[in-house]
From TrEMBL:
Residues 368-423 form the Myb-like domain. GO terms for molecular function: DNA binding. It comes from the Eukaryota. This is Uncharacterized protein. Gene3D superfamilies: Homeodomain-like (1.10.10.60). The lineage of its organism: Eukaryota, Viridiplantae, Streptophyta, Embryophyta, Tracheophyta. Transmembrane segments: none annotated.
Length: 424
DNA sequence: GGTCGGGCTATAC
DNA sequence: GTATAGCCCGACC
């Protein structure tokens, strides 16, 4: 039996781990059985992190996974950055408020300059995780150190573990939906899918024989039939000698088919058997032993039971090369991006034009004086409500000065305006 | 100085 | 284009 080459293992892992319908136990078995590539595809890295998150959605390790995920080439889904930012914020905040020592945890996560979560959401961190809300929340946690009132409010806002887990599940759903085809699926599409005619036309006889094995005889005949139809009439040579040779070839092929069994079904069955045996073996082992199998980049992490995978599922168990008629078509590339950084939606970012006011009555620097609008976060709204209850409507200065840790960068009139909006 | 009401601006839909 | 939230300005106490 030919030895499995590292590139083949990479293709298999890219396909199996990145397929959300493959149960966690099977994916972990594959990760344990096959060498993890030294230069994994971005899809494999992303899938590994998603599986790790699904198994352990709210923890310090999950925070690591979320930050690593944000450092990968961006997901094709436009909803992914917001989902990632929300999940990251929810997990970091929950870890801080649920820690036995709030001050130590909040400092380690949100303190300046080295807080783990703060570094990730600040400029220079992960762009996908940065937002005004993240900045504001980081400031609030930092300011809440030593302030029991703020800590109580923050616990009320961020202390729901189920809510944090829900944010992670939402991110998982968005990411899995956009993970795209594996390299094997793309290759399969090229050989038996939409691009098959061109691929087969360009192939020599030896290569076509390999394609025939992969596609199966029936599909191969369909493709070759279409290929024959597309050959320009002017290129056909029609002489008695050519007809004689073609008849001989057809006869030879028919004889071959009658005596040689198509090897693909048997090979596929054997492969399934081997995979099933491996899975059984892995599942029989102590779950922790399997899940803690280290990988080359230590990314596979703890496994989850098969029913713990929070990912969209297909109706039936997927075979490695099951053909998916609804799959999308990708432009084939023979070699992967050397740095693994290519993104399907990477486009140059151009600054959007903004309106500029020019008026002789209004000095240009007036624009700079206007503060940038910053959305009110839940903590500010909640504190404002409590402040109005405590100090009374209209006493904005009192409310502001008694909650400097919460109303960072706000003025008394901002509180008034916000209350006016909240009462509408 | 603090608060109020009206108006302006940026942004989301 | 419209609705809304956030910010600013001038008047008033």
């Amino acid at each position: 039996m030919p030895r499995l080459m590292p590139e083949d293992a990479s293709l298999l892992l890219d396909h199996v781990v990145g397929d959300p319908s493959v149960p966690a136990a099977a994916a972990n078995a594959a990760l344990a059985a096959l060498p993890f590539p030294s230069r994994p595809t971005p899809r494999l890295l992303r899938a590994s992190l998603l599986r790790r998150l699904a198994a352990d959605p709210v923890s310090a390790a999950a925070l690591d996974s979320l930050q690593l995920l944000a450092s990968l080439p961006s997901s094709p889904s436009p909803a992914a950055p917001a989902a990632a930012a929300a999940a990251h914020l929810a997990v970091a905040a929950y870890l801080a408020v649920s820690a036995p020592d709030f001050d130590a945890a909040a400092g380690a996560l949100f303190g300046r300059p080295g807080g783990r979560a703060r570094r990730a959401v600040e400029e220079g961190g992960a762009a996908a995780l940065a937002s005004d809300e993240a900045d504001a929340v980081a400031d609030q946690f930092e300011a809440a150190v030593g302030n029991s009132f703020s800590q109580t409010v923050l616990r009320g806002l961020w202390g729901d573990r189920a809510a944090a887990e829900e944010r992670v599940r939402e991110l998982l759903a968005v990411e899995w939906a956009a993970i795209g085809q594996s390299r094997l699926e793309m290759a399969a599409e090229r050989i038996v899918g939409d691009g098959a005619i061109e691929t087969w036309r360009a192939a020599d006889e030896v290569t076509r024989a390999k394609y025939r094995l992969l596609a199966g005889e029936q599909r191969a005949r369909e493709i070759e039939g279409k290929l024959g139809e597309t050959i320009p009439q002017g290129n056909q040579i029609s002489t008695p000698e050519v007809h004689k040779v073609m008849d001989a070839l057809k006869s030879s092929c028919a004889n071959l088919h009658s005596v040689v069994e198509d090897p693909l079904p048997a090979a596929k069955a054997a492969a399934d058997e081997v995979l099933a045996a491996r899975m059984d073996k892995a599942v029989d082992l102590n779950a922790g032993e399997v899940s803690n199998q280290p990988t080359a980049c230590d990314i596979a992490g703890p496994s989850a039971p098969a029913d713990n995978l929070d990912a969209p599922r297909k109706g039936t168990a997927a075979s490695l090369m099951d053909w998916n008629p609804t799959a999308r078509t990708f432009q084939w590339e023979d070699s992967p991006d050397p740095d693994g950084s290519c993104s399907p939606i990477h486009r140059p970012q151009l600054p959007s034009p903004r309106r500029t006011t020019f008026s002789p009555l209004q000095p240009a620097d007036n624009k700079a004086k206007r503060r940038k609008a910053r959305k009110w976060c839940a903590l500010e709204e909640e504190t404002l409500r409590k402040g109005v209850e405590q100090y009374g409507n209209g006493n904005w200065k009192d409310i502001l000065t008694n909650n400097p840790d919460v109303f960072i960068g706000r003025k008394a009139m901002d509180l008034k305006d916000k209350w006016r909006n909240m009462m509408r």
